[in-house]
Amino acid sequence: MVGNGHLGQQPRNWRGFEDDAAAPDLKRCEWPGCDDEGAYRAPLSRTQLRAFRWFCMDHVRLYNASWNYFTGLDPREIEDIRKRDTVWHRPTWPMGAGAGHQKRDRAFGMHDSHGVFGADDCGANAPLDTPRDRALALLGLDRMATAADIKARYKTLVKRHHPDANGGSKHSEEIFKTINAAYCYLLNCVSG
User: Fold this and answer.
1) Among candidates 182, 172, 126, 118, which has minimal Cα distance to 150?
2) What number of other Cβ atoms are within 10 A of residue 141's Cβ?
3) Of 13, 33, 41, 56, which one is least surrounded by beta carbons within 10 A?
4) CATH for 131-191, options being 3.30.160.40, 3.30.1330.60, 1.10.287.110, 1.10.760.10
5) Strand partners for 37
6) How far apart are CA 69 and CA 9, in angstroms?
7) What does the domain layout of the chain look like in residue ranges?
8) Are 166 and 176 in contact (CB under 8 A)?
9) Per DSSP, what are the bridge partners of residue 98?
């Protein structure tokens, strides 16, 4: 006789048992006064989420409607549970924290050139490596300088190192030329 697709086997009932005599005892609804089958489970308590009470459909709906996971907890404990739930109760730490993060990040070719995650060898203290960086350094400014900062610093340095203000000193004239060249370069960077 053909049963569940295999030749020579007897058909099984829908629960997978050979006959009803071998089926396990059916659970009864745990609601007081109800004798229906308890086919639906509901958690026993917040601390015993893997232990269940068994109810019929009508009573599991009543039980679930009245059951509150947060019963007995103060607002601080509820907020703590909510925060831990956002990361599935796994430990977390700020990005860039933890042992060996810099070595690991460098190994994967990751660099924080803007210093968002803390100091890095490519951040604000990195060696000057572009013409713009060198021009800003000549004016005594950092990479975050605005056009207004550049103009104000240029005016200050020109007044200080102008050859006419220093009695025609050749040294002052060389510094003045360098400052002027850096400022012209930065003007071209900003405008073009």
Assistant:
1) 182
2) 19
3) 33
4) 1.10.287.110
5) 28
6) 48
7) 20-66, 131-191
8) no
9) none
Contacts of residue 121, Cβ cutoff 8 Å, sequence gap at least 6: 111
Sequential pLDDT tens for the chain (192 residues): 444 444 555 555 555 545 545 545 688 999 999 999 999 999 988 888 889 999 999 999 999 999 888 888 999 999 998 888 888 878 777 766 655 555 555 555 566 666 666 554 444 455 557 888 888 888 998 888 888 899 999 999 999 988 888 888 888 889 999 999 999 988 887 665
